[in-house]
Amino acid sequence: MRICLYGAGSTSIKSKYTEESYKLGEEIAKRGHTLVFGGGSTGVMGAVSKGAIDNNGKVIGIAPEWMEDFEGICRDCDEFIYTESMDERKKLFLKNSDAFIIAPGGIGTLDEFFEIIVLKKLKQHNKKIILFNLFGYYDPMLEMLDFMLKEGVVREEIDKNTFKIADTLERVFELLDIK
Fold first, then answer.
1. DSSP readout, 50-117?
2. What pLDDT, on the 0 to 100 scale, is given for residue 67?
3. Best exposed site among 2, 7, 16, 128 by fewest CB in 10 Å?
4. Is beta strand 34-37 parallel, antiparallel or unpaired with respect to 58-64?
């Protein structure tokens, strides 16, 4: 399975997130999956890719060439696809992935997460989306989504099944293995 990882590239993120993210990359590799990600060498992205690479996993990075001006690029990928834009990058994530894991991240991660959800709602794909809620990171966002449901802005019958939530590494892979 080709698993796309969305997550922070920040060098300021707390180590508890990067330590668990390394383990995620380790498990992706040990289970024979391929990691598809934004190509960064720092933060959650860097930790997951390092975990996969250190365990002989296949890793595909996708990023615009100009991204190197903002964060380090992982030089150890098996394949690196350079794009012209962030839109092209997101399209290639969708094209080259069978499932998505959203780890702790910032604005870019939220942009990617909500876009992939919208595309699933609009029946542009039917791939699994797992929100990796490490240490309750996404609890405030989930509360906001619940509020939106209560206010009638979001339709429950569609959104409650659009993505699954995993609080542990084990749960991430249980949800990915469900047929």
1. HHHHHTT-EEEEEEEGGGGGTS-B-TT-SEEEEESSHHHHHHHHHHT-SEEEE-S--HHHHHHHHHHH
2. 81
3. 16
4. parallel
State pLDDT tens for residues 133-143.
999 999 999 99
Which bin fits 135, alpha (ψ -120 to 50), beta or left (φ > 0)? left
How many residues does the structure list for the chain? Answer: 179
DSSP for 137-149, please give it: TTHHHHHHHHHHH
Weakly modelled stretches of the chain, pLDDT under 70? 156-160, 178-179
pLDDT at res. 159: 62
Helix H or strand E encompassing 21: helix 15-30
